[in-house]
Amino acid sequence: MSNSKTIILVHGGFVDGSGWEGVYNALKKNGFDVIIVQNPTHSLADDVAVTKRAIATAKGEVILVGHSYGGVVVSEAGNDPKVTGLVYIAAFAPDRGESVSSLIANPAPGAPVPPILPPVDGYLFLDRDKFPASFAADVRPSLASFMADSQVPWGVEALQGAVNEPAWRSKPSWYLVATDDKMIPPDAQRMMAARAGMHVIEAPGSHAIYVSNPEAVASVIEQAAEGVAPPVR
């Protein structure tokens, strides 16, 4: 089985592209070409450039998928003419002039606070002991511990990078809300998806839903590739 669109997967902060393995395998099984971007997460401009180089290597049309901070990256890089659809997985979906920093500046009362440690030399980490509960509560404990101990430094400059023109304003977009997320509150996810007019699907899962439930994530991506909107609830 062959599908004409290439799926490009963009990871978020504190992690690298290896977490997409389950989603990759599910998509490949169903005949998709898949590219996994390895962004340095030093700055938004650098990550957009790396993602656009991946888009340039893709065959034909592209569905661009971002998790968490990766949503900011795909919002900017998704303006590439080869991109025909966007998918946000528990991701930031900024509007013009917004960044991760601006989107998290005023958390709702009672919202969980991610255990981000003070920056060192311009880079951030999550508290390793609190990482599993906050980021990957439904991931098997040994893997969650590995993710905590293998964190990628996330540049403060990347958090402050603002989107110029979000691609979701001109491209059909889908959003998977992780309903048990302790990093980006589900209500914040719903708000960003609603204001962008995205097709919204919800599934139980932590911020690492792409690791813990790759089949659900792959299903949303395949809907986007087929241009299928979810049923009205």
UniProtKB/TrEMBL annotation:
Keyword Signal part of the UniProt annotation: no
UniProt keyword terms in alphabetical order: Hydrolase
Any one GO MF annotation of this record: hydrolase activity
Keyword Hydrolase: yes
Entries under InterPro entries matching the protein: AB_hydrolase_1 (IPR000073), AB_hydrolase_fold (IPR029058), Sec-Metab_Biosynth_Hydrolase (IPR052897)
AB hydrolase-1 domain segment(s): 7-219
Coiled-coil ranges from the UniProt annotation: none
Protein name (database record): Alpha/beta hydrolase
Organism in which the protein naturally occurs: Sphingomonas oleivorans
